[in-house]
Amino acid sequence: MSEIINTESAAKPLGAYPHARRVGNLLFLSGIGSRNAKDNTIPGLKLDADGTIIGYDIEAECLQVFANVRAVLEASGSSWDKIVDVTVFLTNMKKDFPVYNKIYGEYFKEVQACRTTVEVKSLPTPIAIELKVIATID
Q1: Alpha-carbon distance 20 to 55, whole Å?
Q2: DSSP per-residue codes, 30-77
């Protein structure tokens, strides 16, 4: 059994892929970023006239990306406590890891999901964080 899931409660995917795909009792989320579902803005982002990032708020982005992941999980019939694996992509590990890790610890304290955090040069939009999540569905 395989099912494609999309929701209006998270920012639209940037390409030809769904928010998530259920296969059996596993749920695979596509990369979920920190864009706001309502207006596609990135919380705390400041760009110059040329579109170059001049400032961003990693805490605000963490809170938004976690909200987006929760929205996709719930639209899929899963929940936060059913997350089993998280891959986190940060664009600035040295600067952002301490804040992200603190917030992550608050959100995932009871979940105890496996986690990998990697630094990437950039992401498809000027976001500073993206999550790739695997969860279960009963």
Answers
A1: 30
A2: PPEES--TTT---TT-EE-TTS-EEE--HHHHHHHHHHHHHHHHHHTT
Q: What does each of the 138 residues of the chain score in pLDDT, given as a tens digit?
A: 689 999 999 988 988 899 999 999 999 999 999 999 999 999 999 999 998 999 999 999 999 999 999 999 999 999 999 999 999 999 999 999 999 999 999 999 999 999 999 999 999 999 999 999 999 998
Q: How buried is 52 (Cβ within 10 angstroms: 0-12 exposed, 13-18 middle, 19+ buried)?
A: exposed
Domains and CATH numbers, the chain: 2-136 (3.30.1330.40)
131 burial (CB, 10 Å; 0-12 / 13-18 / 19+) is buried
The backbone torsions φ and ψ at residue 42, rounded to the nearest 5 degrees and listed phi first, read -110, 115
Q: Give the C-alpha separation, 3 to 36, whole Å.
A: 25
Which CA distances in Å does 22 have to 10, 28, 64, 101?
Answer: 17, 6, 23, 28
User: Which residue type occupies 64?
Assistant: Q
